Fold each of these.
Amino acid sequence: MGILQELAKVFFKIGLFGFGGGYAIIALIRHLVVEETKWLTNLQFIDVVAISQVTPGPLALNSATFIGYKMGGILGSLAATFSSVLAPFILVYLTSYFVHNIGKEKVDLYLSLLSPLTFALIMSGTYSILKDSISDPFSLLLFFISLFLGYKAKWSLIRILLVSGIIGEIFYLFFK
């Protein structure tokens, strides 16, 4: 029963402090499940993020489900998923109370102050994944090719992922 309580505590904390969407809380999830609890390695965490991105649904919720399942089976996935949703539910409920009783303008001001923090959280998550994903000159080259194809050639994300995956598989098949 200890792991279920630990999962609930960690993912409630993620839900509580994870404003700004899934990409904004990648760094927080990584900190809690890789560095603090040591449930996953960096590479396992990157795999969880990748799987969570291609699975329908919010990234944070999918991550909670996958990590919960890895740590505690079906009950672990239920505990982690429910806990990650409980905190935002409570926050939205309280926010609606304050909007009606304090005034929308003050709540809007507070929420607008969170925008820079959300950007910083997204950048932190991006950095934490990039530093572990780019491990050799080929992966660095593939990263820059992907950036070029996305921003200059205006390729769709799906097309970039397919081409990068094929190039990566060919490279690692013949050169590794």
Amino acid sequence: MRRTERYPAKGGANSLWHMYQTVPFFKVVKNFAVIQLARYTPFLPMKNFLYRTFLKMKVGEKTSFALMVMPDTMYPERIKVGDNSIIGFNTTILAHEYLIDEYRVGDVEIGKNVLIGANTTILPGVQIGDGAIISAASLVNCDIPPGVFAGGNPVKIIFTAQQMKERQKGMRENG
């Protein structure tokens, strides 16, 4: 189960209808502008600076966000990415989700030396362990242990950490 805080929708309307009662309008405007600037800039240190300074994201050293990555516009401060990780092209990292009867908010923690493939969506409240690899076009809806190779919609473990070590050892011996 993902670690999210749940809040019921009130007033007979869906939770998104009440969005600006849950997060300030000008915060969303500022975050959107910063994210759009970062999505298009090719300068990785500048992206990390923008995310750390204006969005209060915790971004590790030498972490790389590819073009078009979309961090959460409402709660980017709830996203943490470890050192030397790569977030692939057009990946979406959500720290919130609005549903009909409720909205949910949860921290997203991505470890060190993690590779996230292009066009992946990461849902709120998940942890991705150090050294994990997530294949392209995956939906990460649960925690991913360290060192595994996972992928799919919904995400499933394809190779365990032990299997990945054996595969890497075999590649070194044959390569």
Amino acid sequence: MTTTSDHQPGRDAAPGTVPRQAVVFDLDGVIVDSFAVMGEAFSLAYAEVVGDGPAPFDEYQRHQGRYFPDIMRIMGLPLEMEGPFVRESYRMAEQVQVYDGIVDVLRTLNERGLRLAVATGKSGERARSLLDVLGLLPYFAHVIGSDEVSRPKPAPDIVLRALELLDVPADQAVMIGDAPTDLASAHGAEVTAVAALWGCHDGAELLAAGPDVVLRQPADLLALCPALPGR
């Protein structure tokens, strides 16, 4: 495993390997800090569909990276919560925060010639809408949601779809996420699995999922992704 700050070449970043051509990002907890908005939307949806009592948002967060209906099934909650949850998420989209340093990283990666995609547990439409509201959509060649693949994370399908759309082989790409489901999806697709610690809620659990590289701040990603030849 390779860590950040004092970045050392590991098996995935050794001298002489093929340059990385693409980065596949998870969205929540990596690009945006949406957890306050997510918690409010979840609480409102719970109150509307289930009724009184505290909404189990802490448990919901433990399943981050998965598709919302899958989380509802795991938690034994009504699938009908999805409607109000999505409605409130759209309503509060402008309150979502972009992590410090992310815009600079996205701009630099674009300038270096890398192709970028998002592979998220959200639906594709909602992810693209959020990125558009935040002014980030132009940085990404593709944004894929869990409703746009046969099997969402932790299956590799969404990362494989991103690679297909980007037209980049697995050994020339990295997938960066803040949840074990992200890393499992990356491992299954045979891309370098990168753990983002700045947005995760359980660093020990994320590290236990076996990332190839650990990043402590967004700018650390740039050490993994030098400019492509001719840029």
Amino acid sequence: MDQLREPRHLVAPRAKAMWATEYGVAGVVVLAVVVVLVWTGTITGAWRFAACAVGGLLVVAGACVVPFWRYAVHRWEITDTAVYTQRGWLVRERRIAPVSRVQTVDTERGPLAQLFGLTTVTITTASAKGELRIEGLTRNDAEQVVRDLTTTTAANPGDAT
């Protein structure tokens, strides 16, 4: 069995822009709620400045820092014997799953991912830990991962349980 190690491939560089958009939109929503709470008088005094500062910091950090950090961490690799994934930004998760344990391989393209031409591949295995996800792949890379895993799992019969 292969060693638990850092996977070889980075996700698509466009993932940074997608993540920046996700976090930026979420941050703007939080900041809008803070502004409404300040405007209606729910938050008063020095707390209103602190709340606005925290909201602004969330927008900036979410859109400008987190995507680059996630891009540096998110990696994947498919070999003849295993699927490697590494993800996270605050908490890093590195997983390996033997190909013989792969049960299903799915792709997902939400509206934002479609806008950036990206795909998420979800690999379900016979593991209590759950599925492996590779976010931020180009459509071509995702299709190649699905083809490779389909071919490899067919050639490596296992019990997948």
